[in-house]
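Hi R.,

As promised on Friday, here is the backbone we talked about, encoded as structure tokens. Could you run it through your design pipeline when you get a chance and send me back a sequence?
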């Protein structure tokens, strides 16, 4: 029996340090960046290059989740970074990670990216968002805000795993949406909105295979720890998340729902 909605983000961020969650992240991604997305570790390592980050870059992440990936960029590139997320537990975790890390230039704030951003015009050299845009209503307005806060010549990158490219049933839509609210978008529309908001589109890369691979690994890593997870999440939540992950796997292997990575510049 699958619940109407199940929780992923509150428990992933609120119980970030739980060994069972850490083991699942390592088994799923290979490297633990506190991820809840479909970003492979290869993509995590490529993002700084795609954004052209250097030690002097001031970077903005929308939907930073646990904050771990932003901190990784601040630590390894030496850039400064600001992250926002609507989830309290994510921001609490991110702030705590900063507190225990020496000398990283990172700040995190709870904020809803569907609202105007509280940053000045041209505040950042780069803006990115990993698998978050699908949750935020008003995509054109969000992209216009990303454009506004970016300096001329700066890069913007986001991924979207909710690009429709085939028939999806009402049951599949509801299972795929079990963890929250989503906007499914027809193929080609993100490219149009990126251009409409003023950006120059540099790349639109089909990364559907990443969603298939990560969902399967996460599903199987969780299945192997079923009793531990039921003790933490409860059976209804466990089964709901497994159904969600299975649905992502099916829709992406059949390529009815695709994931794209978009890179654009403010010329
Ligand atoms: C799939 S997770 C990705 C998190 C992180 N980027 C990662 O790669 O693991 C989506 C994130 O978007 C955040 N989110 C959803 N709606 C949002 C909004 N309106 N404003 C800011 N963040 C939002 C969620 O809280 C969640 O942390």
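Update: got your reply. Pasting your designed sequence below so it's all in one thread:
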């Amino acid at each position: 029996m699958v619940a109407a909605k199940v929780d992923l983000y509150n428990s992933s961020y609120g119980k970030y340090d739980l060994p069972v969650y850490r083991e699942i992240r390592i088994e799923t991604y290979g490297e633990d960046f506190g991820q809840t997305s479909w970003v492979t570790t290869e993509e995590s390592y490529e993002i700084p290059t795609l954004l052209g980050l250097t030690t002097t870059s001031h970077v903005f992440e929308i939907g930073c989740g646990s904050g771990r990936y932003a901190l990784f960029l601040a630590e390894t590139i030496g850039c400064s970074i600001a992250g926002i997320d609507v989830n309290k537990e994510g921001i609490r975790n991110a702030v705590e990670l900063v507190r225990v890390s020496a000398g990283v230039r990172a700040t995190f704030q709870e904020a809803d990216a569907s609202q105007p951003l509280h940053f000045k015009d041209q505040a950042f050299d780069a803006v990115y968002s990993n698998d978050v845009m699908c949750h935020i209503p008003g995509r054109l307005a969000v992209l216009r805000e990303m454009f506004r806060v970016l300096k001329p010549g700066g890069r913007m990158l986001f991924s979207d795993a909710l690009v429709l490219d085939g028939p999806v049933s009402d049951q599949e839509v509801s299972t795929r949406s079990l963890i929250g609210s989503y906007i499914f978008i027809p193929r080609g529309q993100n490219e149009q909105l990126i251009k409409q908001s003023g950006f120059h589109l540099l790349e639109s890369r089909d990364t559907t295979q990443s969603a298939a691979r990560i969902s399967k690994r996460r599903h199987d890593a969780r299945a192997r720890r079923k009793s531990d997870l039921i003790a933490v999440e409860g059976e209804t939540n466990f089964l709901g998340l497994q159904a969600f992950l299975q649905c992502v796997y099916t829709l992406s292997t059949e390529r009815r729902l695709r994931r794209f990575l978009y890179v654009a510049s403010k010329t």
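One thing I noticed while checking it: The chain is about 45% helix and 20% strand.

Thanks again,
M.
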